[in-house]
Amino acid sequence: MATPASGPARQGHPFAALRHRGFALFFSGALVSNTGTWLGNLTVPYVLYQNTGSAVWVGFAAAAQFGPALLLSPLGGLLADSLDRRLLLLWTQVAMGGVAVAMWMQWASGLHSPVLLIGLLTLFGIFNGLNNPAWQSLVNDLVPRRDVLSAVTLNSLQFNLARAVGPALAGVLLATMGATWAFFFNAVSFAVVVVTLLFVRPCRTVVKPAHRQGFAAQWRQAGSHLASSRPLLLAVALCCLAGMLSNPIFSLTVVFAETVYFTDTVGLGLLTAALGAGSVVYALTGLLAGGRRPDFARRAVLGITGLGIGHMLLSVLPGLGWGLASAVLIGAAFLAVMSTLNSVIQLLAPDRLRGRILAVRHMAFSTSVAAGSLAAGYLTDAVGVQTTCLLIGVVLLLAGAALLCLPRVTALLDRAAAGEKESPGPNSIR
Fold first, then answer.
1. Which of 95, 119, 176, 408 gets the most CB atoms within 10 Å of its CB?
2. What residues does each domain of the chain span?
3. What distances in angstroms separate CA 280 from CA 161, 294, 361, one per listed residue?
4. What are the pLDDT digits (tens) for 22-67?
5. CB atoms within 10 A of CB 383
């Protein structure tokens, strides 16, 4: 049964993970599929805001998409540790593609009910809760440990390339062909990743336990390991901070475009794409820079501080041009935080517990995103989107300053890079 090596994590050639056929295929299929998903992620809040004129409905949409992970991620993590992760992904991707087809058919039929659309998003979120732990775990299985940092960063790169291209395509489609075609292309994109997964093979095999314990016992194992690892707990907590405070901006771009910049759907697409473009710039810069030992603590703290500055600039600078520049900064800072924390979690999670540890991360992150999106929606309707964005920026900046004053706490993140292990507590698992 494979376990993390004890040596330090080193980043060799930045694109080393693409040398492995399985990861290269997975990367390509995921890029197409996520482009379609981000096309849908902009289309849904756009049509909801157009039909209702309320940011609260936009918040409900985000909560519906991410909220079900609170209930389903534990099962998804257990399945990822017990079953063939590739086959599990095949079934969940087929199910998510089926929901995307239902969204397209709903809109094409003229049944533009916000309640029905939210219901379909909730169903999508249920399958995504089962899907995400296996997805994140499979990334690690497709490369040897020496290329894990490359794989995690490239996985973030493809996701954010999609986040840059998808919304831009959505803006053009919404302006020229309408929401029905945007929903259609989102549905088609799922077929690409399903076909890709048919040909993907992991480069190493994680042996599944011959005698499985019950659901509660297996989760006690994962919980005990997580509770005994302060670096893992800190990484999950900072993921929640970024998810709750910063992730709502990806939905609030619709409100900025309508009420602040008074732009059309192309401008909306550019504003949302700028968030993805910033992430791409950061990812490419980090990949090309390389380095022998990543400084996780510094990246996380600077990323959270950058998120605060970006939100504050977005709230006060006038004009769409400044809005695009601020969005690029937010996108780069967001990826700095999330790719860093995801790398820490991947490096510290044992293979036998990886699916469950990543399920905890996804469950906590999704819950924080759902809560933050609902709160941001209500606050936007009450005080306006610019004031809401300013308040978010202030809180993030204060959080970054607090972390700068606690170097001994943030240094825990660098244990993943150094290959250090904490002294096991009474409940830790060898």
1. 95
2. 16-202+221-418
3. 6, 18, 23
4. 888 888 888 888 888 888 887 888 888 888 877 778 777 877 877 7
5. 12
